Amino acid sequence: MSVLSQQDRQPDPADTGSYYIPATSAPLEQSPRTLKHGDAFGLFDQHGDIIPGELHGGGLYHRDTRILSEWRLLLDGHRPLLLSSTIRENNSALTADLTNPDFYRDGVLQQPRDTLHIVRTIYLWDNGCHQRLALRNFSDRAHCNRVQLRFDADFVDIFEVRGHRRQQCGRHAVRVAGSGCVELSYIACDGHRQATRIEFDPPPTRLDEQAAEWEVCLQPGQHCTLFSRIAVDPPAALEKQGRGFLTGLRASRTALRKSSARATAIVTSNEIFNEVLRRSVADLYMLMTDTEHGPYPYAGVPWYSTPFGRDGIITALQMLWVDPQVAKGVLNFLAHTQAQRDDPAADAQVGKILHEMRHGEMARCGEVPFERYYGSVDATPLFVLLAGRYYDRTGDRATLEALWPNIEAALAWIDGAGDPDGDGFVEYQSQRPDGLVNQGWKDSADAVFHADGNLAKGPIALVEVQAYVYAAKLAISRVARALGLHPDATRLQREAEQLKERFEKTFWSDGLGSYVLALDGDKQPCLVRSSNAGQVLLSGIASPERARVVADDLISRRFFSGWGIRTIASGEARYNPMSYHNGSVWPHDNALIALGLSRYGHTDAVEQVFEGLFLVASFMDLRRLPELFCGFRRKPGQGPTAYPVACSPQAWAAAAPLALLQASLGLRFDIDAHAIVLQHPRLPEFLDEVRLHKLRLGDDFVDLLLRRHHDDVAVNVLRRSGSLVVDIRV
């Protein structure tokens, strides 16, 4: 079989898929600042501005619609100079320190630069955006300045921002609604009305349909404050003198602190890693949205700030040891949105778990299929797996009893519609022509291919999906037994064992020395070395001998870049370190692989992956792991290469450091023995010490101190409540 040339391997433009995100500019070039609360998020530049065309995806959004497309601060018609800009460590607010440039009149310097200090503070709360401009004159004489805020709202759908073109759009309107208020509105093609209300305190000197302007005169040392609020479905009128601003800021901080307080606190001897952990936890709880069914981590900003089934489940799995309430919220939400009928237009079949939910105009009008879309082959077995792992972690019988009908429906889909040819393997093929071509986690159109580079044709059975099914049936068989459903428990365990036998015969390739990427519609194996084989280890379906071969391959030079494990090994037909799924490095993928490596006792490989991703985070802005980065080899003195349109923050990337620490410690829970188990605990060289505060099991908790001594770890119990046992297995 001949291998295509590099030129021949390039996919046709159509192969990028209908929902490809074009990159005409890279957000990372501008170091965007991200805020989120509930169903709203904002993407600002370092000044706190939203300038049309300058930052891809920039804007303030609510439920998949950009409700503010321009928000620009000008001082005497000029942009202020940037002194510094940061997102607070808990993600509660963006703060930018600004100052004036040199101002001339008729060639004469009237106001030297750096005499007017502006502290700009922006935060999101209660589906609105709040801003405070604090100005102070540090000059030795009085100055008068025109402070202007320019604004606009284009009300475009998030898919339009991503590059989709529409044949028609709705009607825009704007009106000045009083001395300190402007309302921008939009009536969508389906008649749905949206409005953005901007309120100013104190009222501007001048206000029109495009800008608010204040004449600010300050004596030496004098200061003043200007407030703004941008709201959808506006609540009561803006409180005067900043009381509303300060009240909301305190409320947002309190809410973040309260939600993150559920999590086990982690402090280590490495301050940089502490910053990574603090950023990860802050990002996770910023991305968390409180639904009527419990907390749900939205997938990522800017493109995926909405519920995704797969992303929510994997994030909850990675967070399970520190905050099991997230898993409970995810399970309840996905049970509530589980498909109740077959609907080819939504790729829905009875029992299937949601892939993606959208609220924007294009979804409501059917221009994209994602209002409630079920085009995911792995979300359903992962839902069952999370239910089983949640019970193993908590012993929460009541929740599992309530979820049992949904679990049975998911299992029925796995064995029925999910396996249409009855060969015992779950496979996918989109039921609509514009649905997702690939429906595993690697869902770009060119992600599943053969050794010669030709794209696989469906129905496709992915290797890791069969492993998920195996793990799901084993995990849920334990739940069935605990609920007294002994025949179901026996059947599920037997089905898992039978699947393991079929899987090993079908998906292992001696010639490849690994598990194949997938089977195509003709049951021909895709003989490609991929990180998918690494995720197989997470389930325990692989024999120890084959797990060792896979582990050695994953940390070889063709896979491991020095920063992490690539999605596709170098040398494969479609390998490209700058691609989305064919040679890049995904932190969550590495974290799941590390958990699998830990399961099989490959602690040296876990440390290698852990160290690589720690170094990546140490180079990143705000110590934040992105959705993915390029798979170029690590070079001395150089950082990792960014991917141009990666989401940052992304929930499952933010959870990766937590999963990596769990993998390193071999941490799991034994409900029956009321024990926290540490199986062959190790710490990488960059961590001499780790403290875990209030690591809970049921109503009890322990505080643990772990110290590294070469390849060993000493474990000390600092505090213990109840009869909780710490079981160290070496």
Structure, explained:
The longest helix has 22 residues, at 486-507. The protein has 730 residues and is α+β, with helices and mostly antiparallel strands. The strands form 10 sheets. The protein has an 8-stranded antiparallel sheet, covered by helices on one side. The chain has 17 helices and 33 strands.
Brief overview:
This protein is an alpha+beta fold and 730 residues long.
Task: Based on the model shown, name its key terms.
730 residues, alpha+beta, Beta-galactosidase, Chain A, domain 5, Glycosyltransferase, Maltose phosphorylase, domain 3, 3 domains, four-stranded antiparallel beta sheet, 17 helices, 33 strands, 25% strand, disordered N terminus
Helix content: 25-40%
Secondary-structure-based class equals alpha+beta
The shape, in one word, is: globular
Low-confidence stretches: 1-15, 24-29, 236-241
